[in-house]
Design a protein that fits this description.
homohexamer, 138 residues, mainly alpha, AhpD-like, 2 domains, 7 helices, 0% strand
Chain lengths: 138, 138, 138, 138, 138, 138
């Protein structure tokens, strides 16, 4: 695989996964650090997300989990919540992944991640049907 | 203790400790993840804060310390600075706890925590009398 | 659901997922903080892992991702690599999840996570067939 | 207050709080970075722990909370669990503070903190009477 | 060295390194925690940055690296990007330091650091000539 | 630049910077995740450390700072303290960088980093002449 292939295939996958949200990240870097934009395309999307072993839905669940747990990456979490939904994860899968982080990174990390998810869901005109969940509440 | 007791007692304690700030957290979750709101009530406030061994003032000092040190939880830190004051901690105790975090998590964490405290204190019409402290300055 | 149900169902799920590694965590707490052991059973395994929305394989991928990214939780990461394998994730899925964390938490976090995985795989007499991967190396 | 006073008063307070565990930290730095040892004495113990506004027991609760939550500071957590006990905190207060961190930093941080506490308690010939707690278990 | 000397020399160095951005930090603390402002002057700038062994440019590279990697300190990172430029680091050195953090703390930390750098560079009427970099892009 | 060039140039630079310590990292990955070893060579050493804008001494100061601040990467910090010394940083520059992290990440991070440096310095038969520093102690 050539360097050009990594870039071209990476850009195609970035567009497929993150859509407009990914493109905005790339654009925001052009005036100051276009090489960092290039690395974003080449390494995460040209190398890692191209790999077999996990499908894109599994990869996005892993990423949403990690970014929620780290806590200081809300802009990137928003991009990858878009990404998760774009590759076929359901809103409920995103919500469940974020809730689970209360166990491993604490409630504040889960709460902040959920507020980011809420913003993304509203942006996409999407709030999940929680009636079943509501019905279970004590 | 039944599940219902955990929820009911947790909600009562959340209201006592965090007041309106806690209620806003619960409300903000209703449309997207009401179960996470339920867990906030049941586990931290229904289980942990109900425990003997530390009083509520000690618990809030521990929480203000941890949230300041972690650094990525400013909304929750604001809620718990309200909480600390609501259960009887003084503004000076909150300030001292945050200053001490400069030792364990670095000055940036302490500075960001203090800016959050400043916002809460202003919201409550409360800025501590620092004249004695000022008098000690070189 | 009663409190007893949460505990009983949580313990059963902890045993299914984490097996001996989970039991060792519970045992290690008995002399000092048995209530913390009880909370481990009740909240993560009695509440969270019981939830629909993600299957156990997805949940373990999320957890392996988060613990690798956080970096300071190698004992728990080891337990959950066992857990991932116990619920049907492949060794390659664990490896891929850890590699992906190089993107989000940096290479040191991924390297330390991989060393923990290596220890678990050796303990289980399991090292994945990497011949296909090796053949791709430049 | 002169520089010498900060050092002298800081050293006295370090010895009172952390005892032998603190002295070992200072000794371990002499061959490589004695100035860092000096700063440990002057800033945390000569400046911060000298301040009014919190008593030493409150300060140690705040420190145990923060170090447990940060997760990568187990040696320092051990020193400050000694410190907490040395200034009059009970073993139960230390245990409660660490349990509470499950809420804010996740269960792995609380579990690792508790294992550090266990080591310290064993070193001191001290394991708390948990019979009352045990009696509450479902 | 007397306490007064630490404060006076620290304040002079803070003003030289961080300029207006540093002064704003000090001012923001006066109403709530002037002692924390004093410690910022005395310890980082009166003790640490006064030390031989590293020049100020090296110190600012180390600080920009650390604050980018930690991720939750964007206000302080902005102050120290000003500081790096004020003591003679080039914009390219700041950019390279931040890009390098993608390796050690992950891409999100590097991206957030770069957005902070962009804000500072715009504030100073300064965006580096990246034409050579652009020409290298595939 | 071809993919092969990135790998070849990266490996050469890894060997120059990290020497045996770097090779041990690569070797440790061969049985479990050789691709992660390849990425270590290609991205950090084939892409980032090849870049102009910072020399290798500046890059290692940035890395030692970041790894000390993050706190959960002691094995990698050891490798890069070797690296810093291999590319011409002095032991004092390493020590100063680590001390400075007390300001930004707290004393525990600085203390743990210093203990790692001590291990590396002893391994290399190198402890810096601190007599001048000692003479300044109060």
């Amino acid at each position: 695989m050539t360097v050009t292939t990594r870039y071209t295939q990476g850009l195609a996958l970035l567009e497929r996964i993150d859509g407009e949200a990914g493109q905005r990240v790339i654009d925001s870097l052009q005036a100051i650090a276009p090489d960092l934009a290039r690395y974003v395309i080449e390494f995460p999307f040209g190398d890692i997300y191209q790999r077999p072993g996990l499908d894109l839905q599994q990869r996005e669940i892993a990423t949403v989990a990690a970014l929620t747990a780290l806590g200081h990456c809300q802009p990137q979490l928003a991009v990858h919540i878009h990404g998760a939904l774009n590759v076929g994860c359901t809103a409920d899968e995103v919500i469940e992944t974020i809730i689970q982080m209360a166990v491993y990174a604490g409630f504040p990390a889960a709460l902040n991640g959920m507020m980011t998810a809420k913003t993304v869901f509203i942006e996409r005109g999407l709030l999940p049907d929680r009636s079943e969940v509501e019905a279970r509440r004590p």
